[in-house]
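Onboarding guide, step 5: your first structure request.
Type a short instruction followed by the sequence, for example:

Predict the 3D structure of this protein.
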Amino acid sequence: MERAGEQGDAAPAADEATFAARHAPGCTTLDELDGLVTRCRACPRLVAWREEVARVKRAAYQDWEYWGRPVTGFGPADAALAVIGLAPAAHGANRTGRIFTGDATGDFLFAALHEVGLASQPTSRHTGDGLVLHGVRLTAPVHCAPPDNRPTPAERDRCRPWLSAELDLLGPRLRAVVALGGFGWQALLPALRDTGRRTPRPRPAFGHGAHVVLPAEGRHPRPLHLLGSYHPSRHNTNTGRLTSAMLVDVLRRAADLAELHPDGHSR
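The system replies with structure tokens like these:
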């Protein structure tokens, strides 16, 4: 059985439920965190599903070697803006190995990011396509593709230490976070509490255009702006519940609040 690096007592194996909780808080860089995320096998249902999808494949992608593992965040370590999704898509990020890459949801999101000046190109096809993000990091509360795009509450909570550590490592430069969908919004608030942020109680309601400001205090020298947007799922975009203009508006507001120039550098 594969063992993680020793940390005091015998560290949990990658397929044990405490793997994230034991390892994520000790990470000192995003590269270290990402390396551990890709080894995680703590949720048996998700491991079985992501690997089955990678083995069986979709007919259109028979020539692909699927990633079939947890998908890490993507974007610079000094990002002032974070965008939180839901989980990797079975034949998108679970295939390509990069979040929001290789499916219609990603196409919609990256086109909006490009229009705001946060992405170098409007498409994200594969890890070697040259895409660069400016001042923004994309991540998710759940790092493995779930059946029917629906992680369970237990899977979300087991994965939460990765998100908490990622937000913490982004540190004082992080000025705004956009949650895509109610699932991301609900997962974001407890993760921020894990980093020492004081969040409102009762929990603020999710909605498109929702905006909550967490105050500067303690080890957090700047306020943090939380914004909500409908998720760019095919259902939402095909029905018009979320239009490109709506998503661009939220992302532009977030970039302004994060004090980002069009090239992604902080003002």
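Each response can be followed by summary notes, for example: Confidence is low (pLDDT under 50) at residues 1-8.
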